[in-house]
């Protein structure tokens, strides 16, 4: 317990919440030692049980959400008991599905139910996307741990993780294609055989959205227009420790933009061309003070809005005519759609110095327009509006290195594992 940590949790949760946080941490550690060790010693793996865990406070989303939903839609829950470890259990009180249970893990105070450790230890399959939160640290013999992960992009590992000598704590992890077997085996200190070039379950949402563009944009924003572009910058400022990006200073939260006046100029161009620009804040980004007030063709989308409107993020990505990103894995994912990409690289040099990249020359792996300022962004939007696409051949070549395509990513994974 440090002074800075106490300040952080007091700010987030209030004084009472801060106290509950530290009590919850104590209880959780005790539960892990008692429940976990006893279960491993006296319990055994239940062959028809699988557990899913996503990032805390982001329940039933991303790759675990996509894969478990596929299993349910295709009747696997008749044979398997599916346990979801969630932060907000009350959100699922009305979700009644045969053989599917929701158990509290990592709630807003950091507390996990004793049942989370029991199920985490006895499941035959433990699937997670960010980390297991040690909920299966004392797992029973015979469990298969699958790291579904949350994307392979251009960013190198945080310095703190580079200095770790521990080996990966999973049996399999997913990567999109051949080039990432090398980058991830180095990051996770594991043999290439542990990495499955099967892509991510969420790709099915992106490639086969349940609604068309008009329906999704109408539901989210009440908007109809000619084209839509989504901008998904990676985070710079966050509360994560050991992140060199925190040292990067930008004049605006959006890289490549100097001030609100430049955003207004972009908005004016969007209005003339009837294009909607959707800006998605990274979940880890802090200090985000942008607002859409005063803009006609710029909209901000949040996890909360997507949740309320029942639209999956990767379905939204899948109906957009173009993507703006930078060093994020979403740019790699978007290659599967074969649509125009714009890489916003205003802080490329400082990012290379502070965080670094997994490729010696990451620009060689970016088959799209390079954007450094607002003028470049308007050029990208102009090309999109006119239908000018000069990077189609480069995308096709890069696709072979970065992806292993299939019609259904969930189906391929299920047939391999189950």
Automatic annotation (TrEMBL):
Source species, domain of life: Bacteria
Subcellular location: Cell membrane
UniProt GO MF annotations: CDP-glycerol glycerophosphotransferase activity
CC terms in the record's Gene Ontology section: plasma membrane
Pfam families assigned: Glyphos_transf (PF04464)
Membrane topology: Peripheral membrane protein
Primary location class: membrane
A biological process from GO: teichoic acid biosynthetic process
Sorted UniProt keywords: Cell membrane, Membrane, Teichoic acid biosynthesis, Transferase
InterPro entries: Glycerophosphate_synth, TagF_C, TagF_N, Teichoic_Acid_Biosynth
Protein's UniProt keywords contain Membrane: yes
Family of the protein in this entry: Belongs to the CDP-glycerol glycerophosphotransferase family.
Record protein name field: CDP-glycerol:poly(Glycerophosphate) glycerophosphotransferase
